[in-house]
Amino acid sequence: MRSWWDKTRWKLIAWMQGRYGQYGSDQLSDHLTRAGMILMILSIFRPLRMLYGIAFVLVFYSVFRLCSKNFRARQRELYHYERLMQKPRGYVKLWKLRIKERDTSRFYRCKCGAIIRVPKGRGKIEITCRKCGKRMIKRT
Question: In angstroms, how far apart are the furthest CA atoms of the chain?
Fold first, then answer.
C-alpha cells in the first residue's frame, strides 16, 4: 500500500511533465530563489515591507519559471542571464588566480584586453600578446 506522500509525489511528477522545471532548476532559478530567501531573512531582522515584497517577487518568479511550459522564453532568459554574468565571473576568476599565484607570477593587461601572465623575478623582459601580437617591455 502506498503512502500519502508517494501518491502525491507521483501526481506532482505527472503534472511537471512538459514543463521547464521537469528535470530540475537552472542557474537563474537557483540564484533567484537564493536571493529571495536571503532578502526574506534580512526582512525579519530589518522589517521593511519593500524588502519582503522584492523577496516574494523573486521567489514567485523562480517558481513561475519552473512551472512554465514556454521552453524557448525560459532558455532565452537563461542565455541573457549567463551573458550578463560572464564578465563578473571573469573578474572573480582572475582575482582568484592572482591571489593564488601572486608569489610566482605577474599579470599585465594588453591594450586589446587580454591578460598576460609572466614569471616574477626575471628583470626586464619583452612580452608578446598572444591575442593581438603586440610587443611590450615590462619589468617583472
Answer: 79
Mean pLDDT in order along the chain per 10 residues (140 residues): 82 86 88 95 87 94 93 94 90 84 86 86 89 88
Q: Are 47 and 53 in contact (CB under 8 A)?
A: no
Q: Hunting for cell 593581438 — which residue is that?
A: 132
The model's pTM: 0.65
Helix (H) or strand (E) holding 125: strand 124-128
Asked if 71 contacts 80 with a C-beta cutoff of 8 angstroms, the reply is no
Residue 65 exposed, middle or buried by CB count within 10 Å (0-12, 13-18, 19+): buried
